[in-house]
Specification:
Elements (H helix, E strand, L loop, with lengths): L7 H4 L5 H7 L13 E2 L11 H13 L13 H15 L8 E4 L2 H12 L5 E6 L3 H9 L3 E6 L8 H5 L6 E7 L11 H14 L2 E5 L30 E6 L1 H4 L7 E4 L2 H14 L5 H13 L1 H23 L5 E6 L2 E5 L6 H12 L1 E2 L1 E2 L14 E5 L5 H12 L4
Helix pairs in contact: 3-11, 4-11, 5-6, 5-10, 12-14
Length: about 400
């Protein structure tokens, strides 16, 4: 059906990949002895722990303020808790007024980008990219400049430097990476910060999956710089986070921005316009989780690392498959089929009862590498499920 009028920027934006993939399930039946294995989306399927659910329920029943508008930049108590815990975790100094709470991390990204770039500007993003980042830039008429990654899907700051032009406003990193799973070395992140500072750009780091990093200690040292938030000609860097994965709060949409107070003053304009304030109940749940679930989150991390080990070991046994990256919730692989990735992925639904995403959803259409690649979001299947997945992939004939 033709719609008129239609913003050409929206019309030119790709359809949501996870929703597109779900449509492949139409008309396909999955018998009880071979149910669908859905590794297309990185979202916890289980509910939060009971204590967190009770905290939300009690607030819903007994706290009248939980149903009212709150501060545009989020609850003061949650902002303060993030500032305190992040200061300890990263070894730096973060103030409460340098934290904003958003309706999920996607909104955090959109809010920050609105303050940075407008139509005709450019933002550098490594490929394979997180598709929602690319979609938002397309909607705003901002050119996403792709930065191909090297071994282990690690981006190269020198390669990024060659892409900087007069309209470049920012560089965006995601670590641990979605879709590639790569954990960027601290020295790589520092080099990107140095590049951004030298060229007057903002470095935006999405750390949605920081709670599932295989490394111990802080993943980078940027917050140890007393001037991390910038000043003068230095625009500083911006950190993004999601409470969805650590506390299973995907449906409540709670994210965070850590940035300079000047940046957040501009972010506030956007947030007030699109949401007025983040949802109160989700924030109450996130705050309760931060204060009470550190041991539980640590156990969740150990479980995800066990699944990572299981899928890494399983992929090695698949003839012709190559692991490009594996970490957090994701494995990113090359497949051996002669079919292009989108067709191969759709065939997997019918032939193997497996739903995953093709690499073309994470790459420019002009990059042939996407035709050979797939993303497997393994966090929602346990080690037994991973073994079953490997068995189905091993049984394929090409």
């Amino acid at each position: 059906m033709r719609i008129a009028p239609l913003n050409p920027a929206i019309a030119g934006t790709s359809v949501p990949p996870v929703m597109e993939a779900r449509r492949w399930l139409g008309g396909v039946t999955f018998p009880p002895d071979r149910p669908l294995i859905n590794v297309s989306q990185a979202a916890p399927l289980d509910p939060p722990p009971e204590g967190l659910r009770r905290a939300i329920a009690e607030a819903a029943l007994n706290d009248p303020a939980a149903h009212l508008y709150g501060p545009v930049l989020g609850m003061a108590a949650l902002r303060a808790e993030v500032a305190a815990q992040w200061s300890r975790a990263y070894g730096g100094q973060i103030a409460e007024n340098q934290v904003a709470i958003t309706q999920g991390c996607n909104q955090a990204f959109c809010a920050v980008m609105v303050t940075l770039a407008g139509a005709g500007d450019e933002v550098i993003i490594p490929t394979p990219w997180y598709f929602n980042h690319k979609m938002w830039l397309d909607m705003q008429g901002v050119k996403a400049v792709s930065l191909p990654t090297g071994a282990g899907l690690i981006p190269d700051p020198q390669a990024a430097a060659a892409l900087i032009g007069p309209r470049t406003k920012a560089i965006v990193l995601v670590s641990p990476n979605n879709p590639g799973g790569a954990e960027y070395p601290a020295e790589t992140i520092r080099a990107f910060r140095d590049l951004a500072r030298a060229r007057g750009l903002v470095l935006v780091i999405d750390e949605t999956y920081r709670d599932f990093d295989a490394r111990t200690g802080a993943p980078h040292t940027l917050f140890t710089d007393p001037d991390w938030a910038g000043g003068g000609t230095d625009p500083g860097f911006v950190h993004l986070y999601s409470f969805s994965k650590a506390y299973r709060l995907t449906g409540h949409r709670v994210g965070a921005i850590v940035a300079s107070t000047a940046r957040l003053a501009e972010v506030e304009k956007f947030l007030d316009t699109v949401a007025i304030c983040p949802g109160q109940l989700g924030q109450i749940g996130a705050l309760w989780g931060m204060r009470n679930l550190s041991a539980w989150v640590a156990a969740e991390r150990i479980e995800i690392l066990a699944r990572r080990a299981a899928i890494s070991a399983g992929l090695v046994t698949l003839p012709g498959w190559k692991t490009l990256g594996c970490g957090a919730y994701f494995a990113y692989v090359e497949h051996p089929s002669p079919l292009p990735a989108p067709q191969f992925a759709q065939n997997l639904v019918r032939e193997a009862g497996v739903l995953l995403l093709p690499g073309t959803m994470f790459m420019p259409v002009t990059d042939p590498a996407g035709q050979r690649q797939l993303r497997i979001a393994f966090a929602n299947i346990d080690t037994a499920g991973i073994a079953l997945l490997m068995g189905r992939l091993r049984a394929l004939t090409f």
